[in-house]
Amino acid sequence: MQASPLAHHFENIEKQSHAERLGMWLFLASEVLLFTALFAAYAVYRYLYSDAFAEASRAIETWFGLVNTVILVTSSFTVALGLNEAVKGNGRKTGLWFAVSVAFALAFLALKAVEYSHHFQEGQLPGRYYSFHELQAPGASLFFSLYFLITGLHGVHVIVGMTILAVVGVKAARGKYTATYHTPVELAGLYWHLVDLIWIFVFPLIYLV
Amino acid sequence: MSPSHASDVPVYNPRNYLNSPATGLKSWLLTQDHKRIGVMFLVAASVFFAVGGLFAMLIRIELLTPGPTIMDAMTYNRLFTLHGVVMIFLFMIPAIPSGFGNFLVPLMLGAKDVAFPKLNLLSFYLYMLGAVVALYGMVHGGADTGWTFYTPYSTTTVTKVVPILLGAFILGFSSILTGLNFIVTTHTMRAPGIGWNRVPLFVWSIYATSIIQILATPVLGMTLLLVAVENAFGWGIFDPARGGDPVLFQHFFWFYSHPAVYIMVLPAMAVISEVVCAFSRKNIFGYKAVAYSSLGIAFVGFFTWGHHLFVSGQSAFDAGVFGILSMFVGIFTAIKVFNWTATLYQGSIAFKTPFAYFVGFLFFLVFGGMTGVAVATVSLDVHWHDTYFVVAHFHFIMVGATVMAFLAALHYWFPKITGRMYPEGWGLVGAVMVILGFNFTFIPQFLLGNEGMPRRYFSYPERFWALNVASTAGASVLAMGLVIVLVYLLVALKWGPIAGPNPWHSRGYEWDTASPPLPENFEETPVYTRGPHEYDEESYANPPPVAPEPKHAS
To answer: Is B391 a member of any domain?
Structure first.
């Protein structure tokens, strides 16, 4: 006999799910503001150094970003499929779909790591570490500062989101959730979609200037 | 919900959150009870209040004479930075929302706990972790940037600014989690009968605070992280030598830190709205006006940050717009002040210690608020910018108002939290000393600032001497008053007379349960048929004498 998912201080499971969903949405709002600070800095410096930003953006390889975009969007799709199974009460299939999503997340990170190593070789690095000789315009090093800050913070979110997907996926596969109560699956999905959504903004800003 | 003032002899609730389910240290450190977490926040915040106060006294002693008195310039720079950081991030931001808010919000909503008790405990540990990281930086070198960490100085200083920044970053997450918890709790945990028009005003104001905490704090976190990265690795975001813009830091910083002023003041208003009803024995005049003006302040607060940049090269048009937007805050604040004072009209006022602090609060809020409108006026601000006038202004509005409300809350809810009464006579003595001391500390600083004494210097010309001595004397009275408060409250913890469930005959929902409350708050989920501030019935408008006489009922 499993422990009931209902915490002692809630009257019923609907109220608890409502509270959990609301909490997640508020947390996502907070996350958006976290990235907004970086996007605002990006906007200011792109306005100040529009030519340098355009050239710096051309100096990095677009196909990395493009492939990663496809990977992340697909992973969001597999997460949605996993949630769909959870609604039906098929915990094992949820676990499988989440495992696929985690694999996509790992692929994303691997590609990102390869990309980072290219930047290190080329000297496309932030601030005082910048040594990319082909582009010496003022503001170019700022582009890479922001590049590493934004993609780095996003990468941290990928790692966190991936971990959440893995934990919730294992729990789902072990039958912790039912067709009536699977809010954690839903929330893990929400978080992952946000990670995906932020990338949708990062991709054009960084790669397609 | 039987009114509790029928009982003659106050009783101490034997099975309460303090002694059950267990009393050991472990049961406290791992507790998920919002009341215990609230008490832990209160104790921790009070300790940091004392630490920050100690720094303040050292600053005042240094300024007793025009030249060096007890320290050199560098020590002084570190001290005022630490004073600001400790007082703002460790005391004023968490004290009322995380301390009293945690204790009271579920009680005021008839709930068993906050929506996410584990997150609540995590918030406390993040607070402690942030405090430890920041204190590590303070002990090992300190910082000399001022609590505002302005670039480019903060990115080049050799002092230990990075751990302090990281500490503040971690504290931000504590603040976010607490805010998130309160919003969800208010939405989903209200007992039957508490529609939005019956939500206690305390909760309304904490709710507005929480919105700011969730939406503004991440921006500060990111900004402080950028400064830390800049200081440690030189990434150039705010460094003009690498194309960065130091003024961008000011925009980011004040986008959080101006709303943060309302993170400090809105909870103070929350307390005051409760106190004014309970001690004038009247329903609030204009419930909706008071409730919605909190949301108004929270909203407008996001669009006023530019008034910190009047002399930072902002365009005249921007400055004008920010100046006008800032004055909107004054309108919302005035709505509250008029409603509170209208509540007093024809009320049956009990001049107890919390009410004394309410009077002090009103004075500091109005005086501080009006000087706020004055400094929001661009032409005047250019004269006062970075002088002691600004120091006195924000100490009045932010510190004065918040500390008054904190002390009012401490006395008003002391019987609920501890089950015992504080000594009323000593309470009034403490209140008079604190309020007078505060005035004598900062009124001279208004005058000094107007005469042109700049802030953040450890020495000054001799013509400023007399007023600085007056300010230090006032600070000593203030400190003495606070020590008296501390002593009698600690004594009352053990030897205070038993308070009973509702010594003030307050109508607030939190007084319907025993004192100290049960671990699960209420025996069964309460159902409310009245608002939280209704004193219309004769027995409530003119109750028997308010506080129990100091007869030792135990």
So the answer is: yes
pTM for this predicted structure: 0.92
Yes or no: say if B482 and B83 are a contact pair by the CB < 8 Å rule.
no
The b/e string for B161-193 (b: 16+ C-beta within 10 A; e otherwise) is bbbbbbbbbbbbbbbbbbbbbbbbbbbbbbbee
CB B363 within 8 A of CB B405: no
pLDDT digits (tens, 9 = 90+) for A56-108: 998 888 999 999 999 999 999 999 999 999 999 899 999 999 999 999 999 99
pLDDT tens figures, B125-155:
999 999 999 999 988 888 888 888 888 888 8
Instruction: With CB atoms and an 8 Å threshold, state whether A126 touches B222.
Output: no
Domain that residue B170 falls in:
35-541
Distance in angstroms (rounded) separating the CA atoms of residues B548 and B500: 9
Which of A23, A33, A45 shows the shortest C-beta gap to B215? A33
What pLDDT is attached to residue B479? 97
Contacts of A79 (CB under 8 A, 6+ apart): A97, A98, A101, A165, A188, A189, A192, A193
Chain B residues closer than 8 Å to A31 by CB: 218
Is B16 domain-assigned? no
Question: Measured between CB atoms, does B122 come within 8 Å of chain A?
Answer: no
- The whole-angstrom separation of Cα B198 and Cα B189 is 14
Beta-carbon contacts of B348 under 8 Å, excluding residues fewer than 6 positions away, are B280, B281, B282, B541, B542
pLDDT tens profile B223-248: 999 999 888 888 888 888 888 888 89
Helix (H, G, I), strand (E, B) or coil at B531: coil
Nearest to B426 by CA among B444, B441, B414: B414
Q: Of how many residues is chain A composed?
A: 209
Average pLDDT over residues A113-120: 92
**Chain A residues 102-141 with a CB less than 8 Å from chain B:** 126-129, 138-139, 141
Beta bridge partners of B420: B498
Q: Name the nearest CA neighbour of B185 among B202, B203, B205.
A: B203
- The architecture CATH gives domain A13-207: Up-down Bundle (1.20)
Q: Indicate if the pLDDT at residue B554 is higher than 60.
A: no
**B127 lies in a domain?**
yes
Burial of B313 (0-12, 13-18, 19+ CB in 10 A): exposed
Residue B454: what are its φ and ψ, rounded to 5°? -75, 155
Supply the pLDDT for residue B5. Answer: 47
Averaged confidence pLDDT in chain B: 91
> Does B395 reside within a domain?
yes
- What token pair was written down for A122? 């080329």
DSSP code for B387: B
